[in-house]
Inverse folding.
């Protein structure tokens, strides 16, 4: 080739290692090198412009394989590949295609000339991992040996998934030992889709006839034409077309240029090179069953995996996939334990009564999984939580079901499910009796209600005084006396002992409404006070930490680290393991070898209060934590499925029912020990005070209007008429003024006269009843009214329009 320029191109063998030698020579001589194999060549120089691949590259299979994993919800896979440039060539494409929720857990290399012992070792490495989805990418001869040893190891059985690349699926019918196909039952593979045309059927018939004539010793009625031979046939045809074009064009073109633009309908479909390679857009997903393969799905870039080549058009029903073990049940793709043994779940003995709650949640979650998973418990005594986590990390156990708090540091050691119980940290202290407090009498009402009641007492007294002090001698006198009468009247209504006789109907209405409010208020106060005196009231005995105070924590709990960060010295910690020890330590107190408070996670404190519901209280803020989760080894595929099951149970309310079942006594204790301390608040009586305020406000407005109605303005006749009408209406509420005829009585015996020189009340009374006598009110020390007499006209002293009369006693 170096000396003879007549060589126009080289068509490489299918799988021969000598391809590397030919390719290197072709590159040095600038001779086009045509490969009809997806496997060869695989070296870096394959990117040279003189290299042309007339078969789909192996990297194009990565997306269909990733789509298979996604279609069956398999989250991870292990690549078993040949330890050669061909085997490694697909690795980067798979990693790129698996980005997202799918992952390539690991890759195991198998040498091309590996012995059975080396293949067994590679299979053992793969079988010790939890993933049960294997991708096989190697030449057919090595793949056949791998499946033979996998059958011996029991790995071609139910629960396993084997996916082979197109090189294996294409060579199934041409394996050297036809018995090898029995070791591949249930394997899923890929094949580039080739439409069954009449030309293809004719070629296959002619090929079988020719093959049997040249190989008379081989009798095989089911002889099939491998896809690789169809590509090789189209490659030779493309080379011939390119040679003819390069010779006949003017000016002549190079063979390579003619080959790169060649387009024709070959046996495998439309032949067209893009970037020096043949592109395939559709793959068949085939299932190796019986003596060959059968199509079960299709993959296209537009629709992904589908049961029809054209999903929008009706197509025939494709066959069910039969997996290894001749089962139609889709494998879950992983195993929690090697060799399928039951899951070993560690449970701490120190969990106490709470252990039942956690185990019931765990069993409900496992029952919710879409697959059956056998497991068994082992009880671990006298072990800290860190010890249990190390057991999971070292794979001594497969999981921990218990009160494990999710923390950032622990997530570096093991994998947690999503929390099945929200939790935090708080503390419990012993309570003391406050029923002997000297200030217990103020406890029944809240401070807001006390202040509001005091304000209404004063306002009611003021309003009655404002209405009565001009017409009622009992509310008159010196300012100090009037102020004393106001206060006495106001607060005497609290016990209904007010003795002052009211003259105005307005003030009577105010007092009636206020007495009703006082009645409700006093009865409520009495009921609350009686409850506080007869039922033991408790409150925390600790307000501030001192140097003498000790705090109790659960042994092995992460609470210790939290308290240290909060500033608690380690010397002040006392460790306990049971809730009975909690109660004993709180009863003793810090001075007697106990503790002042127990600091622990809220679920444990609830459990404590469910048993000891008298004499203890949860106080202080709740410091949120990551919650309780189940523990599995790092990378365990169980984590995602268990987390999904926990979320489903939360949404359906089953976790709440389980929690109420175990912690329901705690709720009863809360209502019994805390409910009696409920103080009467302002909001509960807000409607009563609001009604009283509205009535009192209306009375005050009416009273003020009556005061101004006594002096009508002459410059506004309309206003005078309105005020006269209002005054007549007010007489219905203030009959004492009509009776005495003294609308302007100021408490000293003086009265105002109208412009006719007569008392207004008297004039109106004569006009209405024909009685010319008025009855002025005179207050005596004994509270009796003096006799009244008509006012002689001759003693009236006129001064303009108004006149003032001094009654003659």
């Amino acid at each position: 080739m170096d000396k003879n320029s007549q060589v126009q191109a080289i068509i490489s063998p299918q799988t021969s290692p000598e391809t590397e030698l030919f390719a290197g020579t072709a590159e040095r001589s600038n001779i086009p090198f045509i490969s009809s194999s997806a496997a060869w060549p695989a070296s870096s120089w394959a990117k040279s412009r003189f290299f042309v691949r007339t078969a789909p590259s192996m990297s194009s299979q990565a997306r269909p394989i990733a789509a298979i994993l996604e279609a069956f919800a398999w989250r991870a896979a292990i690549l078993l590949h040949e330890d050669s440039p061909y085997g490694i060539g697909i690795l980067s494409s798979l990693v790129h295609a698996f980005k997202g929720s799918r992952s390539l857990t690991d890759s195991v290399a198998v040498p091309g000339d590996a012995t059975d012992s080396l293949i067994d070792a590679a299979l053992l490495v793969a079988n010790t991992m939890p993933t049960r989805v294997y991708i096989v990418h190697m030449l057919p001869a090595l793949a056949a040996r791998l499946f033979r040893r996998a059958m011996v190891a029991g790995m071609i059985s139910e629960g396993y998934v084997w996916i082979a690349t197109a090189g294996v699926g294409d060579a199934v019918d041409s394996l050297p030992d036809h018995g090898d196909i029995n070791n591949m039952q249930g394997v899923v593979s890929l094949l580039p889709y080739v439409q069954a045309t009449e030309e293809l059927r004719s070629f296959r018939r002619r090929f079988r006839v020719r093959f049997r004539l040249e190989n008379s010793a081989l009798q095989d009625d089911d002889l099939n034409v491998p896809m690789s031979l169809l590509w090789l046939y189209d490659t030779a045809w493309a080379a011939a077309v390119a040679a003819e074009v390069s010779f006949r064009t003017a000016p002549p073109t190079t063979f390579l240029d003619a080959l790169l633009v060649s387009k024709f309908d070959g046996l495998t479909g439309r032949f067209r090179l893009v970037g020096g390679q043949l592109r395939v857009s559709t793959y068949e997903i085939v299932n190796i069953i019986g003596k060959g393969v059968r199509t079960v799905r299709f993959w296209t870039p537009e629709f992904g995996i589908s049961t029809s080549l054209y999903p929008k058009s009706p197509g025939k029903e494709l066959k069910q996939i039969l997996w290894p073990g001749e089962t139609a049940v889709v494998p879950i793709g992983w195993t929690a334990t090697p060799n399928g043994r039951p899951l070993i779940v560690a449970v701490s003995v120190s969990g106490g009564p709470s252990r039942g709650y956690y185990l019931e949640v765990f069993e409900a979650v496992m029952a919710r999984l879409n697959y059956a998973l056998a497991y068994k418990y082992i009880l671990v005594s006298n072990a800290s939580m860190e010890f249990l986590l190390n057991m999971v990390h070292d794979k001594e156990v497969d999981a921990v079901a218990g009160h494990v708090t999710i923390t950032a540091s622990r997530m570096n050691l093991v994998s947690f499910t999503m929390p099945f119980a929200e939790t935090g940290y708080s503390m419990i202290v012993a309570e003391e009796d406050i029923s002997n407090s000297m200030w217990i009498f103020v406890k029944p009402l809240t401070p807001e209600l006390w202040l509001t009641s005091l304000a209404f007492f004063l306002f009611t007294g003021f309003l009655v005084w404002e209405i009565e002090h001009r017409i009622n001698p009992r509310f008159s006198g010196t300012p100090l006396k009037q102020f004393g009468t106001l206060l006495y009247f106001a607060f005497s209504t609290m016990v209904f002992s007010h003795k002052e006789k009211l003259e105005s109907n307005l003030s009577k209405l105010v007092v009636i409404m206020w007495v009703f409010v006082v009645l409700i208020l006093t009865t409520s106060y009495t009921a609350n006070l009686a409850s506080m005196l007869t039922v033991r009231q408790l409150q925390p005995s600790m307000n501030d930490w001192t140097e003498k105070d000790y705090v109790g924590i659960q042994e092995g709990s992460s609470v210790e680290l939290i308290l240290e960060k909060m500033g608690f010295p380690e010397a002040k910690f006392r460790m306990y393991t049971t809730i009975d020890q909690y109660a004993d330590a709180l009863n003793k107190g810090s001075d007697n070898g106990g503790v002042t408070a127990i600091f622990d996670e809220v679920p444990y404190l609830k459990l404590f209060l469910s048993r000891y519901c008298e004499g203890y209280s949860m106080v202080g803020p709740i410091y949120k934590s990551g919650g309780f989760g189940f523990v599995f080894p790092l990378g365990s595929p169980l984590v995602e499925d268990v987390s999904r099951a926990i979320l489903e149970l939360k949404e359906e309310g089953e976790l709440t029912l389980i929690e109420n079942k175990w912690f329901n006594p705690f709720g009863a204790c809360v209502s019994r020990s805390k409910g009696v301390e409920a103080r009467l608040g302002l909001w509960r009586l807000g409607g009563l005070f609001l009604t009283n305020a509205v009535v009192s406000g209306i009375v005050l407005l009416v009273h003020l209007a009556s005061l101004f109605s006594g002096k009508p303005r002459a410059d506004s006749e309309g206003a005078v008429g309105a005020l006269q009408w209002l005054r007549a209406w007010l007489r219905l509420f203030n009959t004492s003024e009509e009776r005495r005829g003294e609308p302007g009585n100021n408490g000293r015996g003086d009265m105002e006269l109208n412009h006719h020189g007569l008392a207004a009340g008297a004039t109106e009374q004569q006009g209405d009843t024909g009685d010319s006598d008025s009855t002025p009110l005179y207050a005596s020390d004994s509270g009796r009214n003096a006799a009244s007499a008509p006012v002689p006209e001759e003693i009236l002293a006129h001064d303009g329009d108004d006149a003032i009369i001094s009654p003659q006693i």
User: Anything to note?
Assistant: The first strand starts at residue 10 and ends at 11. The chain has a mean pLDDT of 76. The two ends are 157 Å apart (CA to CA). Residues 712-803 form one domain.
